[in-house]
Amino acid sequence: MTPVVRVLLVANLAVFVLQVAFPVVDYFGVFVPQLVLTRPWRVVTVVTYMFLHGGLTHILFNMLGLFFFGPRVEDRMGSRRFTIMYFLSGVSGALLSAVLSPGAALVGASAGVFGVMLCFAHFWPHHPIHIWGILPVPARLLIIVTTAIAIWSGFGGSGGNIAHFAHLGGYAGAYLYLRWLERGRHEFKKKLESVPVTAQKRIEDWNKIDLKSIHAVNRVEVQRLMEKIAADGIGALTPQERLFLSNFVPLGGHPSAPPS
Q1: Alpha carbon 104 to chain centroid distance?
Q2: Which candidate, 150, 10, 147, 175, places its Cα nearest to that of 85?
Q3: 140-193 pLDDT, tens per residue?
Q4: What Rg, from alpha-carbon coordinates, does the chain have?
Q5: Phi–psi pair at 51, nearest 5 degrees
Q6: How is the chain split into domains, by residue range?
Q7: Cβ pair 97, 165 in contact under 8 A
């Protein structure tokens, strides 16, 4: 279990208990686009709705999806990027629902969970997902099928109290965020090509660091320093920071001496 997924699971379950004990929680947390227009303070409900659920079955399926897909995606993306992606998916789900179904009240973590599912399919497109625990479906195909169902049901009017537009918005938010991350990696690659050969070789060595093999505290610092390089170049690092990175270079690199 990864840190952010654990917090989200506990938070959703805790809020659900509050819903059962104090039904008034629904009024303050549900997202209703028309109410936001007349009561601006309710804009916070584009986030709070993600922690409310319409019943035991509703929260069960959402939390199962988060439990099965979330840890692997968070481990791949990192906790900070995972958190951004999750809430961005939830907000984009609410906004798309507001545009295409402005009168509908919205509750549930589905948009965020659908964003997690899309990221899972992005990283492991051919990984089989067992529907009902029996039928194996490649992750990418599952996303395509559920997207088609959401479009058909949403515009066809056969929603059945399911927020299909929120699901589509969750997919859209996660997709756009992944594209933004890909753009950042592309720009980082261009920066690699513009630095001197010795510095480029050093950065290439640092990029080979296996984050999963080092302690979580060091992992966060390595990620921070690599982002610092991407933003400001290798010259922005202090000698101590360069030496710190070099300590984690795999065999074949130069872990003992700081780069010049």
Answers
A1: 25
A2: 175
A3: 999 999 999 889 888 876 556 788 899 999 999 999 999 999 887 777 666 655
A4: 22
A5: -105, 0
A6: 3-179, 195-246
A7: yes
Q: Which fold has domain 3-179?
A: Rhomboid-like fold (1.20.1540)
Q: What is the pTM of this model?
A: 0.71
Please give the full DSSP string across 17-86, using - where no structure is assigned.
Answer: HHHHH-THHHHHH-B-HHHHHH-GGGGGHHHHGGG--SSHHHHHHHHHHHHHHHHHHHHHH-HHHHHHHH
Residue linked to tokens 């952010």: 4
Q: Among candidates 148, 45, 66, which has minimal Cα distance to 115?
A: 66
Tokens of 231: 């933003």
> What is the C-alpha separation between 81 and 213, in angstroms, rounded?
19
Identity of the amino acid at 79: S
* Tokens, residue 104: 């509908």
Q: Report H helices in 78-138.
A: 79-100, 110-123
Contacts (Cβ under 8 Å, ≥6 apart) of 166? 93, 94, 96, 97, 106, 108, 110, 111
